[in-house]
Amino acid sequence: MKTYRRIETQLVHAGTPEPRVLGAVSTPIFQSATFEYAGETSYDDIRYIRLNNTPNQLSLHRLLSVLERAPAALVTGSGMAAISTTLLSVLGAGDHVLAQNCLYGGTLDLLANEFPKLGIECTFISGTEPESWPAALRPNTRAIYVEAMSNPLLEVADLKAVVRFARDCRLTSIIDSTFATPVNFRPLDIGFDVVLHSATKYLNGHSDLVAGAVAGSRELIERITHRLNHLGGTLDPHAAWLLERGLKTLALRVHQQNQSAMMIAKFLSSHSGVRQVNYPGLATHPSHAGARDLFEGFGGMLSFELAGDVAHTEAFMHRTCIPVIAPSLGGVETLLTRPATTSHSGMTPAQRQQAGISDCLVRMSVGIEATDELIDDLAQALGSYQ
User: Fold this and answer.
1) What are residue 194's phi and psi, to 5 degrees?
2) Given 30, 337, 350, 377, which residue has the most CB atoms within 10 angstroms?
3) Gap between the Cα atoms of 249 and 278, Å rounded
4) Residues 285, 337: one domain?
5) Statement to judge: residues 68 and 168 lie in one domain
6) Looking at the domain assignment, is residue 371 inside a domain?
7) Residue 155: which pLDDT band, with cuts at 50, 70 and 90?
8) Is the domain of 44 the same as that of 113?
9) Strand partners, 301
C-alpha cells in the first residue's frame, strides 16, 4: 500500500483499494450482503456484511488505522455500538471499570444503569485529580475510560496521567476522541490502548449518517470485531461510502472550526450578557494548559451560560438565524442545543447539577459558515443583554 506523510493527504488517498476498482477514483458502493465463498477456514473470515469484512468496510478500516497511527481499526453501526462493544470486549461479569465522571449522557447511562445488570460495576472518577484514582482501584478493575474533551463542559482530563496509571495498574485505557478528531489529537501516540469515535459527528461531518469507529492494537481490534460480529452493530455499505467521502474533507473542516470556535468563544467571553464560556482554547478555561500541551487545535465545540433563566436562554436560541437548534454535532452547519433537554436528558436534575450541567447551559457545535456572520448573528440574538 502507498504511504503518505501528512494527514491532509492521508484523508484523500489512504485506504483506497489498490489497484483501483476498474479504475474508479471513488471507491464504489458494494451493495451486497453476501460474497462468493473463497476457501475461508474461519467463520470470521467469511466475506459477509455482518462480519465487517466487505470492501467498503475494509477501505475505512485501512484509512482509520492510518489516521490514528494504529495497527488496526474497525467501523461500527453507531458511536454507541463502538463504545458498548469495546467495553464488553474488555469487561465481563464480575469486572470493574473506572470512568470519567463527566461523560456523554448515553455512555454514562450505559455504565451506571445497564452494565450493573450484567455484573459489571463502575466507579466514576475526576479526570483532573489523578491522586484520587488509586483509592477507587479494586482487584477486579480491568479498564479506565475517559473522553478527550468532555461533553458538554469541554473538560480535558489529565490524559498523560491516565496512560501512566493504566500502564502501572495493568488496565486497558480507552478514550472517546470524538470531539478532538485525529486532526487535533491522536491518543495512541501518547499510549492509549483504544481510541473510539462517534463517526456520526466530525469524521463524517455532514449530518447524514450514524456510524462509529474503533482503533488500537491488532489483538484488541480482533477481539472487538469478533464481539461485534455477534452483537450485530454493523455499518452498511452506503453509510460506509458516505463516511469515506466525508472523511476526505475532515482536515479542511476541522481547521476552519478550530479557528471559528476560538473567535466565537472570545466574543462570548467578552459579552456582558454571558455568564460563563467553556472552551479549552481560552486561557481562563481550567483545562487550557493541558489542552495546549496535548492538542494541535482546540476543536469546534463550546458551551456557555447566559445571564438569565431558562426562558431567556430559549428566547436567545430562537432569536439566532444561522444555527440550527438540534442535537448532535460536528457537521458543516452550526448547531445549538441545551444538553439538559437532549444529550444529558437521561440524567436526573441532581446528577446534572452535580456534573455542573445547568438547565441554562447552551452547547454550540460550530460549523463552517463565515465566522463574522456567526458572531454578528449571536450579537443580535444577545442584543437585549447589552
Assistant:
1) -140, 135
2) 337
3) 27
4) yes
5) yes
6) yes
7) very high
8) yes
9) 365
- Using 50, 70 and 90 to split pLDDT, how confident is the model at 295? very high
Identify the CATH number of the domain in which residue 279 sits: 3.90.1150.10
Q: What is the distance between the terminal CA atoms of the chain, rounded to a whole angstrom?
A: 58
Whether 20 is in a domain gets the answer yes
Residue 262 lies in a domain: yes
Peptide bond preceding 19: is omega within 30 degrees of 0, i.e. cis?
A: yes
Cell numbers of 325, please? Answer: 437548534
Summarize the confidence of residues 213-238 as an average pLDDT: 97
Residue ending a domain, choose from 185, 219, 247: 247
> Is there a single domain that holds both residue 194 and residue 206?
yes
Q: Is residue 2 part of a domain?
A: no
Same domain, 91 and 221: yes
Q: Does the pTM exceed 0.90?
A: yes
Asked if residue 216 and residue 272 are part of one domain, the reply reads: no
Phi, psi for residue 145 in degrees, rounded to 5: -125, 130
User: Of residues 22 and 159, which shows the higher confidence score?
Assistant: 159
Average pLDDT for the chain: 94
Q: Is the pLDDT of residue 348 over 90?
A: no
Higher pLDDT, 47 or 263: 263
Structurally, how many domains does the chain consist of?
2
Average pLDDT (38-42) is 88
Residue of 2 and 203 predicted with greater confidence? 203
Q: What is the domain-level CATH number for residue 185?
A: 3.40.640.10
pLDDT higher than threshold 90 for residue 344 = no
Give me the domain span that covers residue 283: 250-385
Q: Which residues are annotated as catalytic?
A: 50, 104, 176, 201
Report angle CA 15, 19, 20 to the nearest 5 degrees. 70
- Across 320-342, average pLDDT: 93
